[in-house]
């Protein structure tokens, strides 16, 4: 039921998501809905509007209707599941909620989104207080925005929209792109270990601010090594590999190597086994590489990577 949570949160603020509008945020700001991490709470912390909540909270509604928030997905895609989290909202949670989705290209304003063709992906469903609610979605359409409606009012701590990235790569025609970027549609499909953090962190946008924003494995005691498998944004030719061990001062791998495959059977080297330094952004030129659809990154023996970038060209854009 909750297997979809292993997929990226398309709405996450750190992945480019934004709560572009809400009809009301009297008690707590709408931006909290898509913040990373678990909601926090400190009792008896009162401000001018009452108890401070790490979530979105509307006023007590005294007229017919309901409250809503519009979210632009940081990474457009196919939605596989939604999580509505009412953590810490115990006497002020909404009794019901609904989620709709729409595909609107370009940069629509909130007013333009109101007129969009919205599709219900989570029907009106009951909620309880201080709990995570998981909803599977069976819809193969691509969406760029979601709308959370709470009926009639109250507080929601987090909204998670898990799915598969389906972005428009045509903007990179002729100029190349990061074939391993999560935001371009790449995904870590397997890894040897994710004891401390998810391997998809290593292909997330931006720079890692601390160790938890990268991929880190447990300490190996068996003489083997750790690895991750990346499904690239599309078949392409890798020209530059970037391996970043930022923030990993005493737990960076000693070495790394990268191999590629077009068919999942025949593998070829992209980067030979190469020494790494702690807390360092390494860049390696790659010459005459065949077309790859997947890349495997092996670290020796264990440790962590802040980011992995594989810059190159999709096969249709190869210069």
Automatic annotation (TrEMBL):
Superkingdom of this protein's organism: Bacteria
Alphabetized InterPro entries for the sequence: Allantoicase (IPR005164), Allantoicase_dom (IPR015908), Galactose-bd-like_sf (IPR008979)
Annotated ranges, domain Allantoicase: 16-165, 185-313
Keywords: Hydrolase, Purine metabolism
Coiled-coil positions: none
Pathway: Nitrogen metabolism; (S)-allantoin degradation; (S)-ureidoglycolate from allantoate (aminidohydrolase route): step 1/1
Pfam families assigned: Allantoicase (PF03561)
Reaction(s) catalysed by this chain's protein: allantoate + H2O = (S)-ureidoglycolate + urea
Family statement: Belongs to the allantoicase family.
Name of the protein described by the UniProt record: Probable allantoicase
Species per Swiss-Prot/TrEMBL record: Streptosporangium longisporum
Lineage, uppermost ranks: Bacteria, Bacillati, Actinomycetota, Actinomycetes, Streptosporangiales
């Amino acid at each position: 039921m909750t297997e979809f949570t292993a997929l990226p949160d398309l709405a996450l603020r750190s992945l480019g998501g934004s709560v572009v509008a809400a009809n009301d945020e009297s008690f707590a700001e709408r931006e909290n809905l898509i913040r990373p991490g678990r909601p926090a709470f400190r009792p008896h912390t009162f401000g001018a509007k009452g108890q401070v909540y790490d979530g979105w909270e509307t006023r007590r509604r005294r007229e017919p209707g309901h409250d809503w928030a519009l979210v632009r997905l940081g990474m457009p895609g196919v939605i596989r599941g939604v999580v509505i989290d009412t953590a810490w909202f115990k006497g002020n949670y909404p009794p019901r909620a609904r989620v709709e989705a729409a595909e609107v290209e370009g940069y629509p304003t909130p007013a333009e989104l109101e007129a969009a063709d919205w599709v219900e992906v989570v029907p009106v469903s009951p909620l309880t207080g201080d709990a995570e609610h998981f909803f599977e979605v069976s819809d193969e359409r691509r969406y760029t925005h979601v709308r959370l409606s709470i009926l009639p009012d109250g507080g929601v701590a987090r909204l998670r929209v898990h799915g598969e990235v389906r972005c428009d790569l045509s903007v990179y025609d002729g100029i190349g792109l990061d074939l391993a970027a999560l935001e371009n549609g790449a995904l870590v499909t397997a890894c040897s270990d994710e004891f401390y953090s998810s391997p998809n962190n290593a292909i997330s946008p931006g720079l890692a601010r601390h160790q938890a924003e990268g991929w880190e494995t447990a300490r190996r005691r068996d003489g083997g090594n750790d690895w991750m498998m990346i499904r690239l944004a599309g078949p392409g030719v890798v020209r530059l590999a970037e391996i970043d061990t930022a923030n990993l001062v005493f737990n960076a791998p000693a070495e790394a190597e990268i191999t590629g495959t077009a068919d999942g059977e025949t593998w070829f080297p992209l980067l030979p086994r190469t020494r790494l330094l702690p807390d360092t952004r390494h860049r390696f030129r790659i010459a005459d590489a065949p077309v790859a659809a997947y890349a495997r990154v092996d670290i020796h023996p264990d440790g962590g990577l802040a980011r992995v970038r594989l810059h190159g060209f999709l096969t249709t854009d190869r210069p």
